[in-house]
Amino acid sequence: MRPSASQLPFETTLSGSFHGISRSRAVQRGDDIDAERILLIDHRSSLDESFSEGLEQHGFLVDIASGDDAITNSAVAGDYALILLNSMRPGLAGLNAVQSVRRRTDAPLLVLTDRDSVAARMAGLELGASDYLVKPFSLFELLARVKVLARHPNTHRHINISLHPQPVLQLADLELNERTAKCSRDGIELGLTKREFALLLVLLRNQGRVMSRQKLARRVWNMDLDETSNAVDVAILRLRSKLDAPFEAKLLHTVRSQGYVLEQRSGS
């Protein structure tokens, strides 16, 4: 059971990130296999680590899409309980972002904004936003909104799911279909095992983001990793033999002392 607002150990104010949240205090339940998944769309990558840790501390799994093409990334079509849009764009650009997300998913959409304009918020709601939070706001308020939207999704959905794109995640010539559990590069089926598929899915949902061995262990194996264990490294080695070895362009990279990242690099 997740803590209620009255049980939360502290209160903080969000103006750009969470402060005072350490990794050692994170609630490991946030990586449970049945935890609700949230997608954070953050164009400027201004909230990534501290923000996601704040949510994961209270029992949510957070994937992050960042950069100018964050919304058009096919990961938006994944199975998420809630979409968080950190909107830093003024006027029509911000409204276009809301509309673009809504075209791709019927998941509840909570927009985080620092622009306190009633007219803009009304327009965003008309275009499909489920709710707005104006910065700065407390952690209590954010968690309350997130829990309401994630747990009661049907009252906030706007579009017939049949209009949505298939849940196919892509990176360069790599394609992964969540529904069919098929994965290919350049049209060639990779023949992944269930565990390899699950590992690649986590990496692909977080493409461009370094994933530590511990985080991968929790998300794929639903367990904490012993310091002496090389289970993740062995799994990565096997995945790499199918994902990268037969192809010239390498997508799975090791980041020394940090973990692994799936991304397209020039010259690789």
Describe this structure in words.
This protein is of the alpha/beta class and 268 residues long. It folds into two domains: 8-163, 3-Layer(aba) Sandwich (Rossmann fold); 168-262, Arc Repressor Mutant, subunit A (Orthogonal Bundle). Helix content is 29%, strand content 21%. The chain contains seven helices and 13 strands. It has a five-stranded parallel β-sheet with strand order 3-2-4-5-6, sandwiched between helices. A hairpin with a 3-residue loop joins β12 (252-255) and β13. Pfam families: Response_reg (PF00072), Trans_reg_C (PF00486). InterPro entries: CheY-like_superfamily (IPR011006), OmpR/PhoB-type_DNA-bd (IPR001867), Sig_transdc_resp-reg_C-effctor (IPR016032), Sig_transdc_resp-reg_receiver (IPR001789), WalR-like (IPR039420), WH-like_DNA-bd_sf (IPR036388). One of its GO terms (biological process) is regulation of DNA-templated transcription. Residues 166-264 form the OmpR/PhoB-type domain.
